[in-house]
Amino acid sequence: MARARGPIVLPWALGALFLAGIVHISSVLLMPRFAENDAYVRLGGATQQGLKTLPDASVAQSMPFQDQRAEYAVCHFDLDRGATRVRSNVTPDALVAISFHDRSGRIFYSTTDRAALRGRIDVRLLTPRQLDSVEASDPEDQTPQELRLTPPTNTGFVLVRALIEQPGGREAAHLAANAVQCLMERE
Amino acid sequence: MSVAHYQSVEETRSRLSAYAKTAIAGLVGVGLGLAATYVATSGALLFGAAHSGPWTAWPKAGGAEADPYARAIIARQAETPLGNGEGLSFLATKDDSGRPLDGACDYRIAGSPPVARLWTLNLYTPEGRLLTPGPGRRSISSDQILRSAKGDFEIVIAPSARAGNWLSTPNGAPFAITLNLYDTNVSPTQTSLEGLKLLSITRGDCL
């Protein structure tokens, strides 16, 4: 009996390992879908409309490794309710960096005020269907002024970082973060 | 007792033990798989790390091509890494000679960081939380740095106040440093940062 044990247990152990592999891989792949306390939720979730500046304390509690030399603002989008336009018309006094995240927090686009087209940030977030209807109404002889993106998910958030630079300091950064507009376009 | 009856008892017994083994193997499998996921998504990102001295960056985490582990970690830990279009972030939890950063010690940070429009240096707990308020500041940016006439600088991280660029450590507790480069010429897509000179972290006296 004892002699037979090894070869009998082995297939079960292998089976368990195989199952462990499947469970591990699928749980990793599913985590972005089911993580309940991700950045989207911690930053205010779907309840939020328009751009909202984040107080330092809430940033610190929300997200690890945030830059303490930056002022933050966040804006949630829900394309099912309407396309969203993110704009900064004025050239800000501070370095403004913007990252666009899908529902799971993954970045699908990011830029700074310097890297942006003509020094202005002007991004329109659209579903493929909204993009089609916008393109259909474009004048033929003009290239669009804004950057059009179709996010991987219809909900997500836009994170604005305005770096605190001298001499304006925190106040200038706060103003620069707030100068970014985030507007839902009603259909 | 007939032979047939004896055989069916044996059969039932072996069938039951097969069920039990299946159940045990199933539980062990599910448990191991979930445990592996828990461990793999608890700490820093697993793949795609690029090293330069004591500094580590995860350039892929800031883009759409982030791997499944990075995506899981970002979701679970609510991380919002710097996007590739914004800049690149480096993390250090050890000094130049590989010893963990210790709040009881003095550290000297010097060198010339890569070209960037602005860079910032931040101190955190090793998990990325803010340190409890101390006597001095916990972050500094390139435009605040006091430089010598030649243009070079030195940042001192120490428990007690120093003249010049001083950041205060958590007394005796371990900590981490990030270096964020904004609008930098360091390509976020390069996976090897060999030859890239970042700031050196040299340990001095300890309490």
Walk me through this protein's architecture.
Chain A has 187 residues and is an alpha+beta fold. Chain A folds into 2 domains: 1-34; 39-185, Immunoglobulin-like. Helices cover 34% and strands 29% of the residues of chain A. A 5-stranded antiparallel beta sheet of chain A has the order 1-2-8-4-5. A 4-stranded mixed beta sheet of chain A has the order 7-6-3-9, with no helix packed on it. The longest helix of chain A is centred in the N-terminal third of the chain and has 33 residues, at 2-34. Chain A is globular, with a radius of gyration of 23 Å. In chain A, 39% of the residues are buried. Chain B is of the alpha+beta class. Chain B folds into 2 domains: 1-40; 50-206, Domain of unknown function DUF1214, C-terminal domain (Jelly Rolls, Sandwich), CATH 2.60.120.600. Chain B has helices at 3-40, 68-77, and strands at residues 50-52, 55-57, 87-92, 105-110, 116-124, 139-141, 154-158, 165-168, 176-184, 200-206. Chain B has a 4-stranded antiparallel beta sheet, with no helix packed on it. Chain B has a 4-stranded mixed beta sheet with strand order 8-7-4-10, with no helix packed on it. Chain B has a two-stranded antiparallel sheet with strand order 1-2. In chain B, strand 1 and strand 2 form a beta hairpin. Chain B is elongated, with a radius of gyration of 26 Å. At the A-B interface, helix 1, helix 2, strand 4, strand 5 and strand 8 of A face helix 1, helix 2, strand 3, strand 5 and strand 6 of B.
